[in-house]
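User: Predict the structure for this protein chain, please.
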Amino acid sequence: AAGTLPGRAVEPADDLLVQAFGYGLPWRGLEPRGTIRVRSEIPVGRGLGSKPVFRHMMMGLGLTMATTYGWGAFTTPYAMRVFSISVADAGLIYALIAGVAGGSGLLISGYTIDWISRRDPRWYPWLPALGLTLAVPCMLTALAMPSVWGFVGAVMFGNLFTFFHQPPTIVTLQNMVTARMRASAAFVFFFVNTLVGVGLGPPITGFFSDLYAQGNFALGDFAALCPGGRALPGAEAGVAQACSAASTQGVHSALMTMSLMYIWAALHFFLASRSLRADLSNTPAPLPSGEPVRAG
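Assistant: Here is the predicted structure, written as structure tokens:
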């Protein structure tokens, strides 16, 4: 049987926080001051998972962040190998791309969605789809740039457009649940945003990099002869040069492949717009107030 917390009446609840920690959120907004109740509404997982908007936007979010973190992990190695710059300069490049471009994208997207969503709420998924679609040619252009600052400029624009997805996705997810379920909904967002992005993005990019490097290495087993992308100590000059060339081409092709995943993500955001109005209109109303029910 479920227990009780001091000052709280707890009834069976199956949202994410209750499952994880044994208690839920205070039921805000409907109780007299000083009264705190814990009640379960629609389980977050089942309630949101039944909505096409949620499924498509979480797929779009996961694909976007996996691609973004993949780019983030390999931007510095790519710049160092292709443009022969130092670690310090590569770090500065990454700071410009991640900090300035990413922050600007969040700011522009936040203000834009506040304004444009008044005309049509479907802009919540449309804006991420538009941003990701615009990001693809920017990223592909960056990989074709012969100069380091041409590369940086193109990637900064691509990163700016990429982060158009974050504010609309957060707002949509929060609007699909009632007030007391928003912490659990935020957990779902950041789980996909961070764990899926960090956990899958760099390994997938690295897998593609090794795969393409092996395809561009004609002297045998790339992994054995070029551990870490460099020739073994004492290797002949021809082997060292082949390792370097294959490794550089591998990273280049891997980043190109990952960039195309933005199109896949944009498709999911676009598909989310098809049922947005219906799914938002079906958001459950808060439970009516009443006497706390003690679980047995």
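The longest helix spans residues 237-272.
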